[in-house]
């Protein structure tokens, strides 16, 4: 499945403008033959927008979800995007996957909140593995800091995730995560990992870009630079099957030894 990574910070604070950016990028992805577009963490509203996070938060089935479903349907491309999700008095840092026919396939709430900023504005999610079937692949969702915990990604591997989507707001000086950690996670768990970042200065944060689609061989199929960019690469089920047959990591595990980890 050809996958488009939208590396952009959009227009922080403006849902209307970010929907326009997403619409234009989805059109370009469709023209390039993509079946899926992935946007960064909190793309719908912006990340470093303070109390506007709570003001702009929407339910998973809110107006913006409907607008993105229309974008996906019109272009014939599935869309995954980050947004602040409101449920009652709680606000979650969430990511949602909508199919090319406009169906809401999966919604994930970030389980590992990073730093005081996120802990001040969000409630942590409680469901570690969220998946959906898309284009012949089992697709999982995770957000930014979550992927830095090996147990998190291994849980997806054991649940059969083929392509892990990771909308991200990864900042300086942690660019080694995009450069090194993500390809290793893909290799040690025998899956594709699409890690899609914001760019540039936003409030106190400097986002470093470097979005990538890493394969189960640990090789980046696509790698963005430090600016706004749309990059594309393929998640190939046939290559994934062959890689899993050749790599014994998951078969050679001895879970009885790992009880002390929890």
Brief characterization of the structure:
With 262 residues, the chain is α/β, with parallel strands linked by helices. It is built from seven helices and 14 strands.
Write structural notes for this entry.
The protein is an alpha/beta fold. Helices cover 29% and strands 29% of the residues. The strands form 3 sheets. The protein has a 6-stranded mixed sheet. Helix 1 (15-31) packs parallel to helix 3. The chain starts with a strand and ends in a 16-residue tail after the last helix. 48% of the residues are buried. The model has no long low-confidence stretch (mean pLDDT 97).
Structural descriptors:
single chain, about 260 residues, alpha/beta, 6-stranded mixed β-sheet, 7 helices, 14 strands, about 30% helix, about 30% strand, globular, C-N_Hydrolase_sf
Indicate the topology.
Elements: E1 2-7, H1 15-31, E2 36-38, H2 52-56, H3 63-75, E3 78-87, E4 90-98, E5 104-109, H4 115-121, E6 130-134, E7 137-141, H5 150-158, E8 163-167, H6 176-189, E9 192-196, E10 199-202, E11 205-208, E12 212-214, E13 220-223, E14 229-234, H7 237-246
Parallel strand pairs: 1-2, 2-3, 7-8, 8-9
Antiparallel strand pairs: 1-14, 3-4, 4-5, 6-7, 9-12, 10-11, 12-13
Characterize the overall form. Answer: globular
Number of helices: 7
Helix content: 25-40%
Structural class call reads alpha/beta
Mean pLDDT value: 97
Largest sheet: 6 strands, mixed
> Main sheet: which strands, in order across?
5-4-3-2-1-14
Termini Cα gap: 36 Å
Rg, nearest Å: 17 Å
Stretches where pLDDT is under 50 for at least 5 consecutive residues are none
H and E order: EHEHHEEEHEEHEHEEEEEEH
What's the number of extended β-strand segments? Answer: 14
Strand fraction: 25-35%
InterPro entries: C-N_Hydrolase, C-N_Hydrolase_sf, RamA-like, UPF0012_CS
Pfam family, one: CN_hydrolase
Keywords: Hydrolase
Protein name: Carbon-nitrogen hydrolase family protein
């Amino acid at each position: 499945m050809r996958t488009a990574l939208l590396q952009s910070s959009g227009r922080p604070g403006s849902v209307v403008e970010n929907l326009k950016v997403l619409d234009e990028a989805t059109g370009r992805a469709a023209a390039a033959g993509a079946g899926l577009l992935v946007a960064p963490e909190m793309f719908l509203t912006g990340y470093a927008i303070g109390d506007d996070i709570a003001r702009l938060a929407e339910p998973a089935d809110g107006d913006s979800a409907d607008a993105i479903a229309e974008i996906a349907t019109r272009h014939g491309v599935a869309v995954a995007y980050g947004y602040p999700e409101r449920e009652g008095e709680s606000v979650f840092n969430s990511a949602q996957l909508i199919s090319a026919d406009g169906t809401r396939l999966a919604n994930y709430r970030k389980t590992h909140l990073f730093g005081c900023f996120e802990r001040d504005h969000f409630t942590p999610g409680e469901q570690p593995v969220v998946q959906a079937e898309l284009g012949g692949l089992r697709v999982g969702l995770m957000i930014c800091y979550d992927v830095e915990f090996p147990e998190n990604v291994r849980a997806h591997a054991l649940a059969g995730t083929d392509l892990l989507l990771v909308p991200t707001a990864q900042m300086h000086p942690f660019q080694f995560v995009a450069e090194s950690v993500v390809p290793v996670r893909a290799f040690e768990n025998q899956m594709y990992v699409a890690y899609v970042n914001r760019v540039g200065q936003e409030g106190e944060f400097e986002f470093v870009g470097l979005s990538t689609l890493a394969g189960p061989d640990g090789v980046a199929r696509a790698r963005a630079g430090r600016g706004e960019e749309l990059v594309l690469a393929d998640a190939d089920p046939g290559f994934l099957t062959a890689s899993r047959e050749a790599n014994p990591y998951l078969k050679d595990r001895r879970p009885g030894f790992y009880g002390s980890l929890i």
